[in-house]
Amino acid sequence: MKRDNAPRVLKAVVDKFGIHLAFKEGRKGSRLARHSVMQYYRQAKNWLLDRLPQHREAVGKVLVKKGQVLERYCMKQKCGNFVKKIPACTKKALKQMMVYLYSNGVTSSD
Q1: What are the sequence ranges of the domains in the chain?
Q2: Rounded to an integer, what distance in angstroms lies between the CA atom of residue 43 and that of residue 46?
Q3: What ranges make up the beta strands (E) of the chain?
Q4: What Rg, from alpha-carbon coordinates, does the chain have?
């Protein structure tokens, strides 16, 4: 990923993944626990930043801030204080985003 908009694309993909985790239902039909959501989010974020170290400086702080927002949301959903406004991102949509990211992330001129 050597395009000018690569940090923006990376932020969007991680943000959509966080939304997917926040609304994902577990085996028993209830949403995932806050600790599980945050662990999955951190693992995905760190994996992407390890794979794309050139963007760590540009997106590192933004992704940490998004993680904090996600954690606050997960704490509120247990109390029932949050109103669901965004539909969950499906696995199919996540796969499409990743395919788009990989297919358009590098050009032949790079």
Answers
A1: 6-102
A2: 5
A3: none
A4: 15
Q: Against a cut of 0.70, is the pTM above it? A: no
For residue 30, count other CB atoms closer than 10 A to its CB.
8
What pLDDT, in 10s, does the model give residues 73-110?
666 665 444 444 556 677 787 788 788 777 776 655 54
Nearest Cα to Cα of residue 18 among 89, 103, 80, 72: 89
- Report how far residue 3's alpha carbon sits from residue 106's, in angstroms, rounded to the nearest whole number: 7
Q: Give the whole-angstrom CA distance, residue 47 versus residue 6.
A: 16
Judge contact between 57 and 21, C-beta under 8 A: no
For residue 13, give the nearest of 50, 53, 59 by alpha carbon: 59
Greatest CA separation for the chain? 51
Other Cβ atoms closer than 10 A to 8: 13
Closest CA to 14 of 34, 41, 36: 41
SS3 31: strand
Burial (CB < 10 A; 0-12, 13-18, 19+), residue 63, is buried
